[in-house]
Amino acid sequence: MPELPEVETVARGVHERVSGDRIVQVWFSSQPQTFKTPPIQQADGLKGRTIVAVHRTGKHIVFELGPSSGNGLRAEVQEVRRRRSNAVSPEAQWIVHLGMTGRLLVTSPNSPVPSHTHARLDLASGKELRFVDPRRFGRLEYRDLQRDRAFHGPGAEPLTIGAQEFAALFHSTRMTIKAALLDQSLLAGVGNIYADESLFQAGIRPRRRSNRLTFAELDRLRVALQKVLEKAVRLGGSSVSNYVDADGERGLFQFQHYVYQRTGEPCRRCQTPIRRVVVAGRGTHYCPQCQN
Ligand SMILES: [Zn+2]
How far is the C-alpha of 244 from the C-alpha of 247, rounded, in Å? Predict the structure, then answer.
């Protein structure tokens, strides 16, 4: 299951390769599970649109789409208005959830099409964007922003959240801090590894009550979490020099854990054996000396 850093890596890689490009032709498979919006509706909506930007929201990859050049006068008028206001205002979104095994590939049209390919988008540059998903837990959704509301994840963004908002979120719950970090309605996309590693870096024991932590402790935690996630994004990114082979797993494999799954091994800072407990039903690793 891809976690936040892998999804961020994919979103950044796709953004670099396709932003500014235009979708000229769309093909979808006939596997109904994959399509949250009916494929015909998605194809109609996507065709002709410019890809303004690609970014991550929670564990979703969101394509912000500009006006369709095939819409004639209406689109032209909107385009003029957009240029005048000098603001990039997306008119539609294509939302990709990778599920367990989903992959987004930017490739050339004549490269062999892998089995379990559910979407092929021909771009004006000659590139092709493909969605491949053997187990079909991934989802594709289309939103027309003149009709539907824009996509927002359930929780706040851990990579960009500020000190005040972070403290307010975590002071609002009596859960343990470990459980609160994993609660997707508070922060979107933080998994078990990143929760344990950031609590270690911040020197906070996983079973402490979230609302009892001081502002200073919560800010140490916020900074640590952002560092841990950014590091994982960098490792995810560096392992996939050829984006077509992106799978994220290899990036995480290289990740230098301080506590996660190091039960009984000496702490890298103080040599005390790392302990494992179960918090919120999840295996939780910490150093009894470094974390208070
Ligand atoms: Zn230690």
Answer: 9
User: Could you read off the pLDDT of 146-189 as tens digits, one per residue?
Assistant: 999 999 877 899 999 999 999 999 999 999 999 999 998 999 88
What are the structure tokens assigned to 133, written together? 């998903």
What is the tens place of the pLDDT at every residue in 188-220? 888 888 999 999 999 999 999 999 999 999 999
Residues 6 or more apart whose Cβ sits within 8 Å of residue 52: 19, 64, 65, 66, 88, 90
Q: Which ranges of 154-280 does DSSP label H, i.e. alpha helix?
A: 163-171, 177-182, 192-202, 215-238, 249-253
Q: Which of 208, 209, 231, 282 is catalytic?
A: 282
The CA-to-CA distance between both ends of the chain, in Å, stands at 31
At a CB cut-off of 8 Å and minimum separation 6, what does 158 contact? 4, 187, 188, 189, 190, 225, 226, 229
DSSP 42: H
How many Å lie between the centroid of ligand 1 and the Cα of residue 96?
A: 40
- Residue 285 to residues 36, 193, 261, 280, Cα–Cα distance (Å): 37, 9, 7, 13
Calpha distance 242→224 (Å, rounded): 29
Query: Is 59 annotated in the active site?
Result: yes
pTM of the shown model: 0.77
Please indicate whether residue 2 is annotated as part of the active site.
Answer: yes
How many whole angstroms from 179 Cα to the centroid of ligand 1? 22
Q: Ligand 1 centroid to 266 CA: how many Å? A: 8
Q: Which of 22, 59, 139, 178 is catalytic?
A: 59
Query: CB-based burial of residue 218 (10 Å sphere; 0-12 exposed, 13-18 middle, 19+ buried)?
Result: buried
Tally Cβ neighbours within 10 Å of residue 83: 9
- The pLDDT tens digits of the residues spanning 118-129 come to 999 999 999 999
Cβ neighbours for 14, distance < 8 A, ≥ 6 positions apart: 54, 61, 104, 106, 129, 243
Dihedral, 92, 97, 98, 100 alpha carbons, nearest 10: -170
